[in-house]
Protein 1
Amino acid sequence: MSLLKDTFGRKFPYMRLSITDVCNFKCGYCLPNGYEVNKSDNRKFLHLDEIKRLAKVFSKLSVSKIRLTGGEPTVRKDLPEIIKILKNESGIKKVVITTNGYHLDKKIKMLLDSGLNGINISIDSLDRDTFKKITGHDRLPEILRGIKVLQNLNFNNIKINAVLLNGVNASEKDFDSWGEFIKINKVDFRYIELMQTGNNLEYFKKYHVSSKIFKEYLNKNNWIYQTLVKDAGPSLNYINPEFKGKFGIIAPYSKDFCRSCNRLRITSRGDLRLCLFGNTGISIRHLLQKDDQLEELQDLMLGQMKFKKESHYLELGKTGITNNLSSIGG
């Protein structure tokens, strides 16, 4: 077994695999006008045979966790088959998904039966009107019903993400609202600091606020920092013995954010990306067409590790080739 390791000593047991860049929401920070077809890119999304071969290579490279992303991954009708492939044919221990929760209450049983280990749900506000303004959809009650279905099925690995937006969902009242929610629900809630991408500069200037304001709130209210585990994501997690759930912060502009990087990305059309905000990507799709190409693909991915940079340099305004988060899987 080989190990994905870069020149800075970082190891990569965690892979984010986008299976579509289509999204059915219109979030202001990502796709304010909704999904638009990129006519210059006529490649189709990765199909099942290609994903099966990818999974086998991931396993040989000691990848233990795969997160399925998009766009919105649940728009793919073969999502249950994708989960089964990753779980049953590769030996991957954890397969998790990030979703906007669209029709979650109707889809969740099917996904769990396929072997899903965890779910991250994007909910930018618990206020119904605010949620609608951010996403373009009045679906908060439906998504909360989906969480209730998960809980009734005794599924505990539930996380909620919200993008921190100045003047929208970043007040102490908003923080208290989420506190009340996780006090009685075994759910991890994390604020993600708004990131600048190639297409959202004006939005970023208007709504960006440092995640320090939420960290100060946590410190003031006696939340205790919890150390990271091996294949954890980038969240800094906080616990309170009086609460069933946890709070977390994903702070990409913080000092040394990239030092603990442990994940790589595959786009929905078969490109390997070493960084969410990198300047380059390399297509690996040509090595996903036959079973006898897998050793060559493994060698290619190992060789690419020498090109991974120490930092994303996002704090310098360098957004790389990421025009919007749906194009790479966030």
Note: The chain has a mean pLDDT of 90.
Protein 2
Amino acid sequence: MTTPPACPQCTLENTYLDGSNLVCADCGYEWSVNESGSKEDGDASVIKDANGNILSDGDSVVIIKDLKVKGSSITLKQGTKVKSIRLVGGDHEVDCKMDAGNFMLKACFLKKA
């Protein structure tokens, strides 16, 4: 019997098969059996913007919605262009530097410029 793959979200190996889904007993994340094969092949690094365009390191993007920064009075305005992004893993996929500071943003609030 093969061992189920590690959880793509928390990377722990305490996973089990539940019907056609794999489930992580530690964090509760569920994903389909078909997804697990593509994640191991390196497709996890594919990050897409709000329009479905694939982003890569060094791209320039535009913010599509006003974003309030937690714990601060700063608001990142819609239409702000961000140059030289860096892709990272985790919930917030894009790391960038702007005049207002360094931020980690979700790709769903960005479009490729």
Note: Residues 37-43 have pLDDT under 50 and may be disordered.
Protein 3
Amino acid sequence: MDLSVRIERWPLAGAFTISRGSKTEAVVVVAELSDGTHHGRGECVPYARYGETPDGIVAAIEAMRPTLDGRFDRAALQAAMPCGAARNALDCAYWDVNAKKIGHPAYQLAGLVAPRPRVTAYTISLAAPAAMAEAAEKAAFRPLLKIKLGGADGRDGERISAVRHAAPRAELIVDANEGWNEDQLAQNLAACADCGVTLIEQPLPEGRDGALSRAKRPVPVCADESMHDRASLNGLVGKYDAINVKLDKAGGLTEALALAAEAERRGFAVMVGCMVATSLSMAPALLVAQYSRVVDLDGPLLLAKDRSNGLRYDGSLVYPAEPALWG
């Protein structure tokens, strides 16, 4: 297999803000594999939260170049690289090139039924309560809104109340991005319950989330930053009710599918999520989304412009990829 890898920068339509900071562009790494006739692509997002950088991800992918002969495949990749963004890009590129080489879509290679459109969440960035209410009012026609919380000012109860007032009919999920502490937990959980929130992602920091096992959870709590691959599951029992499967953390579609199946077997509800990225990142995640209770694949909706042959979004309904994009 011939390999090429590059960094791409995609401007956002506006600032994207969570508890850890803001950004105005999506920085992605794209890996391409070719057997001389067929070409496959995979996209990943280096995640600074885990010490990943664009240059570091490129170097990790380039380090695999000597092994990419005719005997190397996705199974070998799982053993050769740790979970994370670099393996995700290569794993998804393998799915894509194999699908094109064999002439069957990736969902058939995975033994799945044909994917169908799914409703995706739409994200409201962290801001002052009034600004979040204004953003929510503009998006109130969408059936599912994801609300970023974790403000350092202690006003998250006001934020969720303002959003609920602005979008009274939307289903709300909340993502605190590790931004709460144990002293705030009960009050913020109660505020979310009062506003009819149906799921809360990662309220406490990874490694400091033991209070969740002792807390009354009036709203189901979903592991995000505490969730990587199947090895993470044992540490979540008793603390979390659901998991957020992200290909960039799991290390690709291969592990993500196995993770979702194992999590469901062990009684966790499954959510599929994304980083802010183009449709090329969302396309393989849509296969996991077919079996997920909550789908959060709105990355391209936050961009000023998506890549060509991108996914079709009809409001909040996202359609499976065409082969020209992936799979």
Note: The chain has a mean pLDDT of 96.
Protein 4
Amino acid sequence: MKFGDYIKKEREKHSWTQPEAAAKADIEQSYLSKLETGKSYPSEDMYARLVGAYSIDTAHMCSVVSSAELDKLREISLVRGAILSREKTETSYLRSWLSAGLAMLMVGTGLVAYEYSQGYETEVSYRYVSPGIVRDGEQMDIFSYLERREKYRKIEFNKLLKKNSSAMISGVEPGESYLDRVDYDVLLYKDNIGPSFAKKVSGGRRQYTLDDAVGKSHLLRNDFVLALGIALIMGAFGSAFISRRWH
């Protein structure tokens, strides 16, 4: 807003004509007309008269009148003081936003860097395998004659018995498909509980033997902390944008 427009609005706010306003301010009507049209700008004395007559708040006037117009009024001490006070306040707010943005940037960057610097943690599980159910009365090593790589190959029990004549296996009739009883079951434990153990199940027992140690790696990262760090970095850029727009 131009200074002349501001003076005109203040006069109209009091519902005064130009002659009435000029009389109250003790200035010429022609001079007041030049002030309102922007053809002239007041001296310190004339401005003081307008302030007294119109009850002008200089700080408010400086907040609505454009900077280019205020530059033409800087010789007036009241206006200069109001401008300096406003600039000081704006500088303080600007520094506050920039300081907040810098703090958020430092903290956010630190959190993100910390989370990405975390390594991997390997979680080991011990795998125990049971090839099938051992029926009551049978030896626990009934399935020990099978090799894992042959578990899908059909082997007749009588051939296996002939090859291992010393193995007394009960519960399987000659001619019965031995591999029909093969039913692998796998258990995973976080701790090593020994090379083997037996477990009672429906229909008999199972002999579980340690087969392998399985390692599973996962990244040590806290998603909440990472999200917080990114949010702080975005907040820092937002603070810089706000301070620039404010300035």
Note: Residues 121-219 form one domain.
